[in-house]
Each structure stands twice: as structure tokens, then as C-alpha cells.
């Protein structure tokens, strides 16, 4: 993970979300087919479809042509109720990039008018309308709003429409949202769902291309170069027959990202220049500026800070990337760092102040992405539907049993003389009753299992919330207080350069030393809250670093690891790290141990942890029914990882703890 600094830089420039626009990769053939429909003697409904498709096709390329097709489509649609309801949707498509407010109002109107139609084509339009409406309100309502709409509206409507390509598109967009919020594990999961679905149902589609390129970004941001290359090669294979496709610009953006990640900087510059030329040709302003920013990253890595600063100043003048507060704060921060490298401390301080003002504003109204909560609500709704179905089956089984008893009574009265037949009927009834009772037991067992799964999801959401809060506090310390200390240091450095004898002053040197110690202490606190070593180097290195961190005079901690693999999901690694951190912390606080042994090994998808200390020990029975944040968190994390805990201890005999965990979860 030697490029981790630059990976963080990439994160601060969010990937742009895309509208639902399923245009084939062979754009020329697609465009010709639509024009042929308009020139033929086809029904008005087919011509209206063609006009509206051309509105969508031209909205980013030529707004004049997009407008002309919108007017023509409206005229053709007037006689048909469904097509009249679709008109606001394509009005929103026309205003998509030029007037978000008008587009938002049009998509909302389309949702209202399409609500009275109940067929697959209406469900498809409702899915797209809801998602595009959310996109138009992203800057005002944030990623939470888009995520809620995508999970609660767009995906369910795509499922009702039976459209796997559309569903795959929304999975890719969810992955992009999660990636922009640094939730790379979940982003990878959703993007993989999209890839698997689209490779089966639409192997030559532009939607699959976007999923591949989204995967490139995710794997680059997590320094998984080999996986990123695999996705990039698949995308290149799809685009190879179409050298004039507008999607080649996005391909070169991700190729630049990949080469930067593996430190092939000359190749990265070449890819960026190819992408910039295409972006200018196709008038892709947003993507053009994002490619320009990639060149800034490359120049900074090459320590060519003069050209890097020039690019940043051009980005500020262009204003395309300055519309979003997060992007603006990031660019100001990079200007401060670049000017500091050029020893222009006054400019660095000015840019740092501008960044701090925007950051303070963002922090005051910041809303964390609640993907776990939204997923839980979505799955809970599905679980309730299943429970309702099971309850209905249970009621039917009870009704069948009641009817069977009635039938048996009538049969007994009518067949008093036929004892043999009566005996057979009674035996049959008993067997059916037992079967009904067994079914009822099975239903109750299923309900119990669903409740247990729901409790596990709630526990997972709590753990994810705890980690998000740790991350937020660490970021506030680093970006808030860290930024202020950085400003003070820049001011002192700038002032000291103008004073010939200031470094001879002992008080001044002591003040600078205290400032450095304060910065180091702040970094230590932030590091303890968010294990940076885990993100950079993986679980094995992070555990060794954790044990070394707690060692001191009178306490020896031995850390042994065997067969720990690099491909363990990040959220699983983080939970294992927290479990061991809690064990060490508890031993130090309560046992008075002088020696601690921690062993962590992996066999397939199973993790084994053995923890031993020579401390005072305790009676494990005292833990039964006990409550405490430490014990609760430990049990919750072990339960989430489908694990088992064994504690062997006695007073004055030390403690041994054995834990078995699974690296595969349902989350």
C-alpha cells in the first residue's frame, strides 16, 4: 500500500453518479435504427418511443437536437394516456445537465402521473424517474437521500419490471455512492453483484462496461492493483470494436487511475492526455476536469509542484469542480500543501484558511451515509412479507385441521356400524393432525431463525455505527485541530525565515518542540481510533503494531500469526482487530499480567485466536449475566463473525481465551 496517500486523494474527488441511460456501445447502429423508425410508416407510439430515446441520447451531446426530438415526441404522444404520462420524464432528461431545478420538478411530476399505470414499462420508467429525481437533489439532500431512493424505490421498481439490466445499473450506482463515502467493502460487494448479474443477462451492454469501470475505481482506491487490471482489461475488450464511443473517455479516466495506483506515472500521463482530448471532443466538461485533476496527482507524485500548482489554479478558474463543497475544500487543501512544498508559506496559509472555513461549514451540517440502516429497513420489510406469508399458511393449516375434525365427527355419526372403516378414519385424522402440528412447529422454528438473523443485523448495524463514529471523531481531530496546528506551524516557519537570530532563542525552540509534540499526540489519538496500519498493510501487520503499541516496562506481549490471508474482507479484519484490542486492554486493566501471548491463525475461512496471560485470573462464572460495554462489544463482534468464545481461568492462575471466527458474513 505504498500509494495509500494518493488513494486518499482520489477519495476526496467523488466519482460522478450517472443517470439511467442504457445506450448500446454501438452508438452509430443505435442512432441509425431510431432514425429509420422516424422515417418509416411505423405507428405513432413507436415513433414517440424513438423521439424520446433521441432526447435521452442527445441530452449530453447536442441540446438543440434533444429539444427538437422532445417537441416531436410530445406531438406524437398526445393521443395515448401512457405516453402523455411519460412526457414529464423526458422533459426532466432534457433539463438534466442544464437546469437541475426544472429537471427535479419534471421527474416528480412524472412519478405522480405514472403511478396510475401498472405494467412493466411503467415500472421501468418509475424506477428511472425516482433515481433521476434523487440525483437532481443530491447537493441539497446528500447521499443519504439518493441511497434511500435507490434501495427503497428504484431497485424495487426494477424488480417489479423484471429488468435485470436496470437492476444491475442501480447496484453499480450504489457501489459508487458507497465508494464516495469510503465504504469500500460494501461498494465492492454491490459492484460484484452488478457484474455477476450483467455478465449473465447483458454481456455486451454499456451498463456492464460502467460496472467494470466502477470496479476499477474501487480496487484502485483499496490498492488492489491486480483486480483493478482485470476489470480494466474486461472494459477494454468491450470497447475495442467501438473506437468512437463516447465511453472511451471514462475508460481513459480509469486507466489513468490504475497507472497512478501502480506508480507507472509516464503511462498515467499518456492515458490522461488521451482522455482529455476525447473529453474536449465530446464536450464532457465534468470528466475533462476530473482528468485534469488526475494530472495534478501525477505531477505531485513526481514532485513537480510548480506544474501541479498551475493545474490546481486552472481548476479553480474553470469552476466545474468547485460547485460541490467537499470538492472545493479538497482543492483548497491541495493548494495549501502544494504552496507549502514550494515554500510559499503566505499563499499556503491563505488556502488553508479557505479550506478550514468550508470544512467547518460542512461539519456543521454533515450527514453520515446510513447505508446499513437503510439496508436493514429494506430487508426488514422483506422479512415482514415472508412472516405474513408464513402466518397465512399457519392459519390455513389450522383451518384444515378444524375442517378435518368436523369431517371426522360427521363420518363417526354416519358410520356407527362400520367400526373398521371408522377406525381407519380416526387413524388417518390423527396422522394428518400430527402433520399439521409438525408444520406449525416448523413455521415457529422458521420465525425464530428469522428473528435471530434480524438481531444479528441489528448488532452489525450497531458495530458499523461505532466504527463510523470513531472515524468521524478521528477525522475531526485530524482535519479540525490538525489543520489549525498546521496553520500555526506554517505561520511560525514563515516568520522564522524573516528573522535572522530567532532560532538562537531557547524559548522559541522549546515552543516549536511543544508544537511538534502536540501534532504527534494528536496523530497518535487519531491513529488509535482508526487503525491506519490495518488499512495500509493488512491485519497481520496491524496486530503486530497493536501489540508493540501496548508494550512497556514490566509488560511483554508476544504476537504470533500464521497463514493470515490478504483477501479477508475489510470489515471482518476490522472486527478481528477490535476483538484482540479489547482482549489486550482488558488484560492490562484487570489482570496485572507481566507476559501476554496472542496467537492468530487462519485455516480456510476460519480464524483461530488464542490469548493467554499470567495475570491474577478470575472465576468465569462471575461473567454470567454480567453487563458492560467491553463484554457486550466483544460478544457482539464474535456473534457477527459467527464465532465461539471459550474462557479458561481461575484466581491466581492466569487466563486463557480461545476464539473461533468465520471470515464470511451475511452482511
Automatic annotation (TrEMBL):
<keyword id="KW-0547">Nucleotide-binding</keyword>
<keyword id="KW-0963">Cytoplasm</keyword>
<dbReference type="Pfam" id="PF02518">
    <property type="entry name" value="HATPase_c"/>
</dbReference>
<dbReference type="InterPro" id="IPR011990">
    <property type="entry name" value="TPR-like_helical_dom_sf"/>
</dbReference>
<dbReference type="InterPro" id="IPR004358">
    <property type="entry name" value="Sig_transdc_His_kin-like_C"/>
</dbReference>
<dbReference type="InterPro" id="IPR005467">
    <property type="entry name" value="His_kinase_dom"/>
</dbReference>
<keyword id="KW-0479">Metal-binding</keyword>
<feature type="transmembrane region" description="Helical">
    <location>
        <begin position="406"/>
        <end position="429"/>
    </location>
</feature>
<keyword id="KW-1133">Transmembrane helix</keyword>
<keyword id="KW-0902">Two-component regulatory system</keyword>
<dbReference type="InterPro" id="IPR011712">
    <property type="entry name" value="Sig_transdc_His_kin_sub3_dim/P"/>
</dbReference>
<dbReference type="GO" id="GO:0004673">
    <property type="term" value="F:protein histidine kinase activity"/>
</dbReference>
<dbReference type="Pfam" id="PF07730">
    <property type="entry name" value="HisKA_3"/>
</dbReference>
<dbReference type="InterPro" id="IPR003594">
    <property type="entry name" value="HATPase_dom"/>
</dbReference>
<keyword id="KW-0067">ATP-binding</keyword>
<keyword id="KW-0812">Transmembrane</keyword>
<keyword id="KW-0418">Kinase</keyword>
<keyword id="KW-0004">4Fe-4S</keyword>
<protein>
    <recommendedName>
        <fullName>Oxygen sensor histidine kinase NreB</fullName>
        <ecNumber>2.7.13.3</ecNumber>
    </recommendedName>
</protein>
<dbReference type="InterPro" id="IPR036890">
    <property type="entry name" value="HATPase_C_sf"/>
</dbReference>
<keyword id="KW-0472">Membrane</keyword>
<comment type="function">
    <text>Member of the two-component regulatory system NreB/NreC involved in the control of dissimilatory nitrate/nitrite reduction in response to oxygen. NreB functions as a direct oxygen sensor histidine kinase which is autophosphorylated, in the absence of oxygen, probably at the conserved histidine residue, and transfers its phosphate group probably to a conserved aspartate residue of NreC. NreB/NreC activates the expression of the nitrate (narGHJI) and nitrite (nir) reductase operons, as well as the putative nitrate transporter gene narT.</text>
</comment>
<dbReference type="InterPro" id="IPR050482">
    <property type="entry name" value="Sensor_HK_TwoCompSys"/>
</dbReference>
<keyword id="KW-0411">Iron-sulfur</keyword>
<keyword id="KW-0408">Iron</keyword>
<keyword id="KW-0597">Phosphoprotein</keyword>
<feature type="domain" description="Histidine kinase">
    <location>
        <begin position="472"/>
        <end position="665"/>
    </location>
</feature>
<keyword id="KW-0808">Transferase</keyword>
Amino acid at each position: 500500500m505504498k500509494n495509500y496517500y494518493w488513494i486518499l486523494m482520489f477519495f476526496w474527488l467523488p466519482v460522478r453518479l450517472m443517470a439511467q441511460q442504457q445506450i448500446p456501445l454501438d452508438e452509430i447502429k443505435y442512432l441509425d435504427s431510431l432514425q429509420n423508425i422516424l422515417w418509416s410508416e411505423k405507428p405513432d407510439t413507436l415513433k414517440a418511443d424513438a423521439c424520446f430515446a433521441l432526447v435521452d441520447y442527445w441530452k449530453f451531446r447536442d441540446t438543440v437536437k434533444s429539444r427538437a426530438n422532445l417537441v416531436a415526441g410530445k406531438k406524437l404522444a398526445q393521443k395515448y394516456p401512457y405516453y402523455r404520462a411519460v412526457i414529464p420524464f423526458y422533459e426532466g432528461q432534457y433539463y438534466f445537465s442544464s437546469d437541475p431545478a426544472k429537471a427535479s420538478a419534471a421527474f416528480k411530476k412524472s412519478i405522480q402521473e405514472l403511478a396510475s399505470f401498472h405494467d412493466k414499462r411503467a415500472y421501468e420508467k418509475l424506477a428511472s424517474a425516482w433515481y433521476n429525481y434523487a440525483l437532481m437533489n443530491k447537493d441539497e439532500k446528500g447521499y443519504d437521500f439518493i441511497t434511500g431512493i435507490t434501495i427503497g424505490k428504484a431497485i424495487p421498481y426494477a424488480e417489479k419490471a423484471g429488468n435485470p439490466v436496470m437492476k444491475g445499473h442501480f447496484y453499480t450506482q450504489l457501489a459508487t455512492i458507497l465508494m464516495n463515502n469510503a465504504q469500500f467493502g460494501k461498494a465492492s460487494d454491490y459492484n460484484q453483484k452488478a457484474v455477476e448479474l450483467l455478465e449473465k443477462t447483458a454481456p455486451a451492454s454499456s451498463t456492464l462496461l460502467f460496472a467494470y469501470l466502477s470496479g476499477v475505481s474501487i480496487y484502485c482506491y483499496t490498492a488492489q492493483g491486480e483486480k483493478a487490471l482485470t476489470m480494466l482489461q474486461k472494459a477494454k475488450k468491450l470497447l475495442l470494436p467501438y473506437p468512437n464511443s463516447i465511453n472511451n473517455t471514462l475508460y481513459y479516466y480509469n486507466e489513468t487511475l490504475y497507472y497512478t495506483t501502480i506508480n507507472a506515472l509516464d503511462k498515467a500521463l499518456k492515458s490522461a492526455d488521451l482522455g482529455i482530448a476525447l473529453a474536449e471532443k465530446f464536450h464532457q466538461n465534468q470528466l475533462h476536469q476530473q482528468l485534469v485533476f488526475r494530472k495534478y496527482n501525477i505531477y505531485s507524485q513526481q514532485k513537480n509542484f510548480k506544474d501541479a500548482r498551475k493545474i490546481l489554479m486552472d481548476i479553480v478558474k474553470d469552476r466545474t469542480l468547485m460547485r460541490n463543497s467537499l470538492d472545493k475544500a479538497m482543492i483548497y487543501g491541495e493548494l495549501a500543501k502544494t504552496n507549502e512544498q514550494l515554500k510559499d508559506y503566505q499563499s499556503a496559509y491563505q488556502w488553508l484558511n479557505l479550506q478550514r472555513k468550508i470544512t467547518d461549514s460542512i461539519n456543521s451540517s454533515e450527514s453520515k451515509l446510513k447505508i446499513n440502516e437503510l439496508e436493514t429497513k429494506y430487508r426488514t420489510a422483506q422479512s415482514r412479507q415472508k412472516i405474513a406469508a408464513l402466518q397465512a399458511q399457519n392459519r390455513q393449516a389450522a383451518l384444515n385441521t378444524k375442517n378435518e375434525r368436523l369431517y371426522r365427527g360427521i363420518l363417526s355419526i354416519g358410520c356407527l356400524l362400520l367400526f373398521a372403516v371408522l377406525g381407519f378414519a380416526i387413524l388417518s385424522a390423527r396422522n394428518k393432525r400430527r402433520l399439521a402440528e409438525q408444520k406449525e412447529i416448523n413455521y415457529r422454528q422458521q420465525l425464530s431463525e428469522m428473528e435471530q438473523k434480524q438481531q444479528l443485523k441489528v448488532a452489525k448495524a450497531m458495530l458499523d455505527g461505532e466504527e463510523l463514529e470513531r472515524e468521524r471523531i478521528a477525522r475531526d481531530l485530524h482535519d479540525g485541530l490538525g489543520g489549525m496546528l498546521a496553520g500555526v506551524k506554517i505561520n511560525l516557519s514563515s516568520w522564522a525565515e524573516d528573522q535572522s537570530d530567532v532560532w538562537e532563542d531557547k524559548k522559541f525552540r522549546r515552543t516549536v518542540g511543544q508544537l511538534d509534540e502536540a501534532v504527534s499526540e494528536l496523530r497518535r489519538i487519531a491513529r488509535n481510533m482508526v487503525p491506519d496500519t490495518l488499512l495500509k498493510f493488512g491485519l497481520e501487520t496491524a496486530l503486530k503494531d497493536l501489540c508493540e503499541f501496548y508494550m512497556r516496562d514490566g509488560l511483554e506481549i508476544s504476537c504470533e500469526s500464521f497463514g493470515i490471508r490478504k483477501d479477508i474482507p475489510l470489515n471482518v479484519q476490522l472486527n478481528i482487530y477490535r476483538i484482540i484490542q479489547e482482549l489486550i486492554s482488558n488484560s492490562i486493566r484487570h489482570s496485572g499480567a507481566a507476559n501476554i501471548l496472542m496467537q492468530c491463525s487462519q485455516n480456510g475461512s476460519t480464524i483461530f485466536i488464542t490469548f493467554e496471560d499470567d495475570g491474577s485470573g478470575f472465576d468465569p462464572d462471575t461473567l454470567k449475566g454480567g453487563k458492560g460495554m467491553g463484554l457486550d462489544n466483544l460478544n457482539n463482534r464474535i456473534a457477527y463473525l459467527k464465532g465461539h468464545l471459550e474462557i479458561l481461568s481461575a484466581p491466581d492462575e492466569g487466563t486463557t481465551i480461545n476464539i473461533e471466527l468465520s471470515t464470511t458474513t451475511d452482511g
